[in-house]
């Protein structure tokens, strides 16, 4: 399905975009353009995407601010840099190899904006998606939130449309985020995913 949507999502797909895998094209610039304006716009800020994949979020963010795009696999950084070049914004992106869970953390940006691994498409079979499934082996959404909070005071997570919102509220409380906001994202009129905004 996501492969079929490749030109809808990456409007410049035929200009040479390299997806890191077929699923990754769903997190594409056109998609993020529809999500970001209401909650995220940092003309003077720095955003970090610690799970940057093929660069969909990072590329869209790089049109409004400086971006630190992190990729676990050093060999694929070339891919993200290439894709940012297709959209003419590579100059606004600093590329870093980093494992989110074991690499260095520390304050470095105004906001973390990211699509962490959801654990594959099996979420489509469940009525409710628990944030504990996010990178489960490392401790789930709470651990992601904790590390992200050490990087920036705001966190924007792109999550499955069925995410358990009360669980997200509980995570926000645990991590002392005072505000949380949810936005449902639609593609072609169909509910596609949910963006969760956490801030101090
Ligand atoms: C949901 S995808 C992000 C897609 C991305 N927004 C895009 O436009 O392609 C999550 C990405 O995180 C990467 N990843 C998985 N574990 C990671 C880790 N521990 N640290 C950093 N990146 C990781 C995966 O390789 C995958 O590319």
UniProtKB/TrEMBL annotation:
InterPro entries: RNA_cap_Gua-N2-MeTrfase, SAM-dependent_MTases_sf
Entry's Gene Ontology molecular function annotations: RNA cap trimethylguanosine synthase activity
Catalytic function, reaction form: a 5'-end (N(2),N(7)-dimethyl 5'-triphosphoguanosine)-ribonucleoside in snRNA + S-adenosyl-L-methionine = a 5'-end (N(2),N(2),N(7)-trimethyl 5'-triphosphoguanosine)-ribonucleoside in snRNA + S-adenosyl-L-homocysteine + H(+); a 5'-end (N(7)-methyl 5'-triphosphoguanosine)-ribonucleoside in snRNA + S-adenosyl-L-methionine = a 5'-end (N(2),N(7)-dimethyl 5'-triphosphoguanosine)-ribonucleoside in snRNA + S-adenosyl-L-homocysteine + H(+); a 5'-end (N(7)-methyl 5'-triphosphoguanosine)-ribonucleoside in snoRNA + S-adenosyl-L-methionine = a 5'-end (N(2),N(7)-dimethyl 5'-triphosphoguanosine)-ribonucleoside in snoRNA + S-adenosyl-L-homocysteine + H(+); a 5'-end (N(2),N(7)-dimethyl 5'-triphosphoguanosine)-ribonucleoside in snoRNA + S-adenosyl-L-methionine = a 5'-end (N(2),N(2),N(7)-trimethyl 5'-triphosphoguanosine)-ribonucleoside in snoRNA + S-adenosyl-L-homocysteine + H(+)
CDD domains (alphabetical): AdoMet_MTases (cd02440)
Superkingdom in the source lineage: Eukaryota
Alphabetical keyword list: Methyltransferase, Transferase
Gene Ontology cellular component annotations, sorted alphabetically: nucleus
Similarity comment: family membership: Belongs to the methyltransferase superfamily. Trimethylguanosine synthase family.
Protein name from the UniProt record: Trimethylguanosine synthase
Organism, scientific name: Cinara cedri
């Amino acid at each position: 399905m996501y492969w079929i949507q490749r030109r809808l999502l990456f409007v410049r797909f035929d200009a040479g975009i390299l997806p890191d895998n077929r699923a990754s094209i769903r997190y594409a610039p056109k998609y993020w353009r529809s999500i970001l304006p209401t909650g995220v716009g940092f003309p003077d800020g720095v955003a970090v995407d610690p799970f940057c994949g093929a660069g969909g979020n990072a590329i869209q963010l790089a049109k409004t601010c400086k971006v630190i795009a992190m990729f676990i696999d050093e060999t694929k950084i070339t891919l993200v840099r290439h894709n940012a070049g297709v959209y003419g914004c590579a100059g606004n992106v600093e590329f870093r190899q980093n494992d989110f869970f074991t690499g260095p953390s520390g304050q470095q940006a105004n906001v973390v904006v990211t699509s962490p691994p959801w654990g594959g498409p099996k979420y489509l079979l469940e009525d409710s998606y628990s944030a504990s499934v996010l990178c489960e082996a490392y401790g789930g959404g709470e651990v992601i939130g904790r590390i992200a909070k050490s990087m920036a005071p705001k966190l924007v997570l792109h999550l499955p449309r069925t995410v358990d919102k009360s669980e997200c509220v509980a995570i926000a409380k645990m991590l002392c985020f005072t505000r949380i906001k949810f936005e449902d994202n639609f593609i072609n009129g169909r509910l596609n995913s949910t963006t969760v905004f956490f801030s101090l």
